[in-house]
Amino acid sequence: MEVYTASITMTICIIAVPKHVPKMRKQIVAGNWKMNCTIDEGKRLVSEVVQLMQNEIQNNAEVIFIPPYIHLTNLSEQLLTNDTLYLGAQNCHQNKSGAYTGEVSATMIKSCGATHVIIGHSERREYFSESDALLAEKVNTVLENDLTPIFCCGERLESREVNTQEAVVGEQVRNALFHLSTEEIAKMVIAYEPVWAIGTGKTASAEQAQEMHAFIRETIAEKYSNEIADSISILYGGSVKPENATEIFSQPDVDGGLIGGASLKSRDFVDIVKAFD
Ligand code: PEP
Questions:
Q1: What is the pLDDT of residue 194?
Q2: What is the pLDDT of residue 80?
Q3: Which sign, positive or negative, has the C-alpha torsion 240, 246, 247, 252?
Q4: What is the pLDDT of residue 1?
Q5: Whole-angstrom Cα distance, residue 216 to residue 174?
Q6: What is the pLDDT, as a whole number, of residue 199?
Q7: d(CA 191, CA 155)
Q8: Diameter of the chain by CA atoms?
Q9: Residue 3 pLDDT > 60, yes or no?
Q10: Where along the chain do its domains lie?
Q11: Could you tell me if 255 and 27 are in contact, meaning their C-beta atoms sit under 8 angstroms apart?
């Protein structure tokens, strides 16, 4: 029996594959009106935005108007024929119905024609003492009603100053979202909003935003999977303006913005949407 020794030359190519391969995530610009606008002012603002968008916007970003509850029904009629414009609420109660004077349920929001609900805005956390445990319940009720939660997280200035921002945001995400199933978490939109940048005119730098968005994605990937983490849109919020939107939105893990003050000015809001053109 002859024994042959084959000499095999192998070429090994090592290709650097990034841990998270960017996927086609939804690009989103959501305007949080907070406690602003009468009925007439709201109608006017939306018709100006719609008009400017029709004339000027080339991209397919989802644009979400998030007014006070009283506007939802009117604006839903106003936006009826538009398929990239959506409507959201700024909050909802965790229970389905009952004796909760002054509150509004997710079912009621849905019946107005809205599709999204902000959960855990820092103003709700601060002025209405909303805890992570409560926010977890609110996320559940929003999902049960086939609405999309826009879950807000973000550190206060004190945390940023001592470099504990990732610990704080990681805990907010884990506490309010990690009870969700894979199918449920995949339906979330997350908004990173550093508290020190909201309504203050101070914006996180594009690098700070990217760093935290990548961290949030990593945190979700560890619990669920890279695929799920890569599919979730993560928005940045905190003094976004036409002047800084392009740089912030062009970061690889930033999929759009949650806009407060600038969403009340049609020209500024549309210029922010234009950052995706
Ligand atoms: C907000 O309300 O979520 C927000 C980001 O506000 P502003 O853009 O005014 O900082």
A1: 97
A2: 73
A3: positive
A4: 39
A5: 10
A6: 85
A7: 12
A8: 96
A9: no
A10: 28-276
A11: yes
Cβ atoms of 106 and 71 closer than 8 Å: no
Q: What is the pLDDT of residue 201?
A: 84
What local confidence, expressed as pLDDT, does residue 160 receive?
95
Decide if 95 contacts 104 (C-beta within 8 A): no
- 140 pLDDT band, cuts 50/70/90, is very high
Which candidate in 62, 155, 193, 213 is catalytic? 193
Atom of ligand 1 lying closest to residue 152 CA = 3
Locus of tokens 């999929």:
255
Q: DSSP letters of 109-151?
A: HHHTT--EEEE--HHHHHHS---HHHHHHHHHHHHHTT-EEEE
* Contact in structure between 177 and 136 (CB atoms under 8 Å): yes
Q: How confident is the model at residue 203, as a pLDDT? A: 87
pTM for this prediction: 0.91
In this prediction, residues 173-188 reach a mean pLDDT of 98
CB 234 within 8 A of CB 213: yes
List, in sequence order, every beta strand (DSSP E) within 83-239.
Answer: 85-89, 116-119, 148-153, 189-192, 234-237
Give the number of C-alpha atoms closer than 13 A to the C-alpha of residue 14, restricted to the C-beta side.
1
Whether 48 is a known active-site residue: answer no
Pocket test for ligand 1, best of 124, 190, 239, 265 (most atoms within 8 A of CB): 239
CATH number for the region 28-276 comes to 3.20.20.70
* Cβ(268) – ligand 1 distance below 6 Å: no
Give the Å distances, CA to CA, from 165 to 32, 162, 196, 211: 24, 8, 12, 11
CB 192 within 8 A of CB 120: no
Contact assessment for residue 155 and residue 114, using Cβ atoms and an 8 Å cutoff = no
Compute φ and ψ for 141, nearest 5 degrees. Answer: -70, -35
